[in-house]
Amino acid sequence: MKALGYALGLPAVLVAAWWVASDGSTNVFLPPLRTIVEAFGDVWFSDTFVSDVVPSLWRLAAGYAIALAAGVVPGFVIGRWAVPRALTGPLLAYFRVLPAPVLIPVLLVAVGIGDATKLIVITVGAVWPILLNTADGVRAADEVGLETAAAYRLPRRTRHLLVLRGASPQIFAGARQALGLSIILMVVSEMLMSTDGLGFTVVQFQRSFAIPQMWSGVLLIGLLGFGLAKLFELVERRALRWHRGHTGQLTERP
Amino acid sequence: MGLAGAATAYEILARLILGPEHVPPLSAVVPEALRLLTGERFWTATGRTLAAVAVGLVIALVAGILAGFALGSVPQVRRATSSTLDFLRPVPSIVLIPVLVLVLDVRQITVLLVAVSCFWIVVFQVLYGLRDVDRVAVETARAFRLGRLARIVHVTWPTVLPYLGTALRLIVSVALALALTGGLVMGAAGLGEMIWSSQESGESTGMYALVLLTGGLGIGLDQLARLAERRLLHWHVATRREAVA
């Protein structure tokens, strides 16, 4: 009960403060929260949901899923064997520091406008934290465990799984970073080159001075980011239940 | 050797499969990049982007450290704010773009975007650091009758510092990405805007060259952040061990 009070207390106060302070607002750019909430219902619980929210969510999900696959598999290979690691090292170092939004104009020229481009932007941008974390995690695999497995002549497949399991906390760390990045790239790519989607709609509202509608879109993107982060936390906690950092007090470390 | 292989593969791919008019081969991009490096336009754009990065970073560090300490030092405050922080953190700061465009000019917005995104990283790293402070060390310092300020300087601060080092490495790349996004989305003067305008005018070779150089800038900033981290933490066990190895 007390914990719930702590969790909900400040947010309730803040929302109430916003509501009260903005209620009489005549500033066009800062409409009353009441108006924003009304606009939220009008805009997003209607056809817009199907025409703009669904495409965004679909792109996000598909792009993120591809990034996961495209990150874990090569990451595993690079982390496990020295030759691919040596060959890809400098190239990976370069792509790691290249800011993802810069890829948008490149892909625009190379692939053109369309769903494919947005998917590729999300995938190409989000794949690096997953790939690099997987490679690092696999590389740091428990030597003793591996040698034991080899001594017992466990099949190759089992040994690979052993390594993958050992690396999974780090893979999750990368995946979490990639999730935030995916949302950003989804919105930015839609702002720059789209005819539908959340990013497009919000910019469209802003350009046509539909300010309360724009605010409602901003709120929706915020809620989406929060919701997905919570969902991820849930999945992570289940998947890593065996891990030390998760059985005791949950302390996150960089 | 890996690099040479990738460069060759890219060259062949660009020339034979994708078509040089869409994806210029490396043999065209590299000379263009060198030409840009000698021109003034590239350096002014880079200067502007770096200025946005630097100002945003300083704001984020100062505000983040102060806020982190203020929130993390009092248990009640930390408990009361943690749900709000958890809510605000995953909200991508770029959602602010449409709102801010109405009230500020694009240059200020870019700096603000950099500052806001990096601020959260700093705050959370400080909070993690404060959670890591050794109870025994705090009690010892108390027993020696060290004042509040002295305790912060000698006990808390050194514990938080490694976490800030990590934060520094993270925020530098985030800051660069957002400074470029400001240019791409809103046309704030700088490298992002330069890349976008060369895309719009169909100069794909120039654009590829700019992207290539942007990656170089990223490497430079990353190295700088690592250097700063090592300087800052030269006394720390992890750094000392690294130096020996």
TrEMBL record, chain A:
InterPro entries: MetI-like, MetI-like_sf. Signal peptide: none annotated. Residues 80-238 form the ABC transmembrane type-1 domain. It is a multi-pass membrane protein. Keywords: Cell membrane, Membrane, Transmembrane, Transmembrane helix, Transport. Gene3D superfamilies: MetI-like. It is found in: Cell membrane. The keyword Kinase does not apply. The keyword Flavoprotein does not apply. Pfam families: BPD_transp_1. Its main location: membrane. The chain crosses the membrane at residues 57-79, 91-113, 119-141, 162-189, 209-232. This is ABC-type nitrate/sulfonate/bicarbonate transport system permease component. It comes from Micromonospora echinospora.
UniProtKB/TrEMBL annotation, chain B:
Keywords: Cell membrane, Membrane, Transmembrane, Transmembrane helix, Transport. InterPro entries: MetI-like, MetI-like_sf. The chain crosses the membrane at residues 50-75, 87-104, 110-130, 167-186, 206-225. It comes from the Bacteria. The keyword Glycosyltransferase does not apply. It is found in: Cell membrane. It holds the Pfam family BPD_transp_1. It is a multi-pass membrane protein. Residues 46-225 form the ABC transmembrane type-1 domain. Belongs to the binding-protein-dependent transport system permease family. PANTHER family: ALIPHATIC SULFONATES TRANSPORT PERMEASE PROTEIN SSUC-RELATED, ALKANE SULFONATE ABC TRANSPORTER-RELATED, MEMBRANE SUBUNIT. This is ABC-type nitrate/sulfonate/bicarbonate transport system permease component. It comes from Micromonospora echinospora (Micromonospora purpurea).
